[in-house]
């Protein structure tokens, strides 16, 4: 392989890696395509459906996980694999959906934060915050041993 060909290939790989950097709008669109509330499962060890919550989320919660997250949590495999996604629907005391908090595991994204990409949305998909969210990381850091995850298995 000629040196310039190798350089172009390396640049192409770097460009592809840069394109995989997560964004909240991309994640929202993917979640909508997944129809997560109908097709995904609940966290093993947590109630199915809505359950009592509290700060910083909502008074009532409902949590969904994709298959990668479900299988890892069910078998107690930590850290969760790249591609694992957790969605927490946060409801007010009167049952109104207030927002959605999402964790997406992205290999190499943020090693200091467990490689989790964090996002919070309004019910219609407006991004409230995204990325290496200090609020999320600060709270979830107490659960580093369980890959930054609070669950019914605690």
Automatic annotation (TrEMBL):
CDD domains assigned: cyt_P460_fam (cd20716)
Organism: Oceanithermus profundus
Protein name in the entry: Cytochrome P460 domain-containing protein
Record flagged with keyword Signal: yes
Signal sequence extent: 1-20
Residue span, Cytochrome P460 domain: 58-151
One matching Pfam family: Cytochrome_P460
Keyword set includes GTP-binding: no
Superkingdom, natural source: Bacteria
InterPro entries associated with the record: Cytochrome_P460, Cytochrome_P460_sp
Alphabetic keyword roster: Signal
């Amino acid at each position: 392989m000629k040196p310039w060909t190798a350089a172009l290939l390396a640049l192409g790989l770097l460009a592809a890696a840069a394109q995989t950097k997560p964004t909240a709008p991309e994640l929202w669109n993917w979640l909508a395509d997944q129809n997560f509330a109908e097709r995904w499962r609940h966290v093993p060890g947590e109630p199915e459906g809505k359950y009592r919550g509290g700060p910083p989320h909502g008074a009532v919660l409902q949590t969904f996980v994709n298959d990668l997250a479900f299988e890892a949590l069910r078998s107690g495999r930590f850290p969760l694999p790249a591609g694992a996604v957790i969605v927490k629907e946060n409801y007010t005391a009167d049952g109104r959906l207030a927002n959605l908090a999402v964790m997406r595991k992205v290999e190499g994204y943020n090693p200091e934060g467990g490689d989790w990409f964090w996002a919070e949305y309004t019910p219609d998909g407006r991004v409230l915050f995204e990325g290496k969210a200090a609020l999320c990381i600060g709270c979830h850091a107490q659960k580093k041993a369980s890959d930054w995850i609070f669950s019914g298995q605690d």
